[in-house]
Write a structure and sequence with these properties.
Low-confidence stretches of chain A: none
Strand content of chain A: 5-15%
Number of helices of chain A: 12
Distance between the termini of chain A: 55 Å
Mean pLDDT of chain A: 96
Shape of chain A: elongated
Strand order of the largest sheet of chain A: 3-2-1-4-5-6-7-8
Oligomer: homodimer
Radius of gyration of chain A: 20 Å
Order of helices and strands of chain A: EHEHEHEHEHEEHEHHHHHH
Largest interface: A-B, 61 and 61 residues
Structural class of chain A: alpha/beta
Largest sheet of chain A: 8 strands, mixed
Helix content of chain A: 40-55%
Chain lengths: 293, 293
């Protein structure tokens, strides 16, 4: 039974997870070394305690959850492994990031070599503000500690004892949701530039109304997340290539989020819903950015 | 007002269109030079008359509809342009194929240089067996003859006088429907290989039920069409690249249809619904083909 959970790092997803655990009776700590002002504010808001350095983090925490952009996951694991070796303690380290299974196996090796218990985990759904909306998939040889989080407000779903399964389901799932969003963003932008936007909208409303509704609901809030999705699309691309499938669809999705991330829309914070453009405004802005390149 | 419509060529889509026009009182002809036995049978079934050569086709037809795979569209237009110059006649030539706008403009130039009236057209929806299911978009400087087909059972929708608009709407629309199908095929195959198929299916049924329903309905009938969709995906890829967007998503969709087209499932005729696999069977077959590569 965990008493203290460490969260690296308390960004949009991480601080919400930390808040749920804290409200359900756990102590939640983090180490804000080198983190942004925004992350510091989110940690404070969620009642997450800051400890000054990693050796203290690994000493006090029974379980560490790594929740961050894919590009940072490996160095976070390496820092924790370093600290584990320095202070001669043990804990469970759950990498909850959107990472290719073959990469998560390497990452897990670093933790287990340092004496930690490694859990491959993944998060499907939004930050868990509302019960029932978010699943925490987990796989690995010892899921006991991580699975206890079921009693502290999270919905944990074990997938088996093999490292990589939890990452695999995340890769496949996110390729649908974020891959489709990238495709829709691209085709609507193309239609705008090609002068068939109104006709295409009418055709979609006639024959693809559910998908068009999804675009209207989902696309306007995407730009603030576009930059962090680039790396996730690249991880999925690597996952698909690793099993012999084409990397190109997801490489293209990464291209799209790189393009959207290059616009001023990506500077909005994700919670600034009032400032989001409409779907039509978003596409006009993207088409304009395209032309000026 | 057209009396005789030529159709090149009466394949799955073409013979159905021809059948509608014939049933609505038009004479429909084709030239089966070099066409497959299957196309000959479809033409006969639809009551489409075969004329021995292109000069006769262009002499007798007031309007020619080009309906074929993208790779054949340019040589069909060249053959008709040749014939037009030989027999000193005129007619309206509508390219109804899934072709990039920049390519259709070149193709149109060949027809107009030979004295023909060129219409950029595109078909959205299934072969028009049921009224209201299929739209025939059209653009170009003179749409009069083509628009008359509205009185003969087709739903013609003019988009303006610019060649390229009708092709553009088709490219953007098909990128959604066929691009999404390619993405779904890829991610389900990956999930199968990675051992998370059941968990992903359960997650989709929980949180993406509409999209999963779409996969169950749409994917099993896709393999017989996969080979002809390769070229269409490449045309869309070229369309997006031409306006400065990434070609990669649609290049990847072409890769997926090339892969599916390499399996025995692609040898089934599209009307063999009874022989289609279930979604789960389809994905198992694809995963097996992947492993044996």
């Amino acid at each position: 039974m965990p008493n203290t959970v460490g969260i690296l790092s308390p960004g949009d997803m991480g601080h919400t997870v930390g808040n749920v655990l804290r409200q359900n009776g756990l102590r939640v700590i983090t180490c804000l070394q080198g983190r942004s002002q925004r992350t510091r504010q989110l940690a404070e808001k969620a009642g997450i305690e800051d400890v000054p350095a990693y050796p203290q983090l690994v000493t006090e925490a029974d379980l560490i959850l790594s929740i961050m952009v894919p590009a940072q996951a490996m160095s976070a694991a390496a820092a924790v492994a370093d600290a584990l070796q320095q202070v001669d303690t043990s804990l469970t380290y759950a990498d909850c990031n959107a990472i290719a299974p073959q990469t998560v196996r390497k990452l897990g090796g670093i933790i287990t070599a340092a004496g930690g218990n490694f859990v491959d985990a993944s998060i499907i759904g939004p930050p868990p503000r509302n019960p029932g909306a978010t699943r925490f998939y987990a796989s690995g040889p010892n899921l006991d500690t991580f699975s206890e989080l079921n009693d502290y407000g999270l919905d944990v779903r074990p997938l088996g004892d093999e490292i990589g399964l939890a990452s695999a389901i995340k890769m496949c799932y996110a390729s649908l949701t974020k891959g489709l969003t990238a495709l829709c963003t691209e085709l609507l932008t193309a239609a705008q530039v090609l002068g068939v936007s109104d006709a295409l909208t009418a055709e979609f409303q006639l024959s693809q109304s559910a998908l068009f509704q999804r675009m209207e609901n989902g696309l306007p809030g995407m730009p603030p997340k576009a930059r962090r999705w680039i790396g996730e699309m690249e991880e999925i691309s690597a996952t698909f290539a690793h099993v012999g499938l084409t990397p190109n669809i997801l490489t293209g999705a990464a291209d799209m989020y790189r393009f959207v991330g290059s616009t001023h829309l990506a500077d909005l914070p994700p919670e600034a819903r009032d400032e989001f453009p409409t779907l039509a405004e978003l596409i006009q802005i993207l088409a304009k950015n395209l032309k000026s390149e």
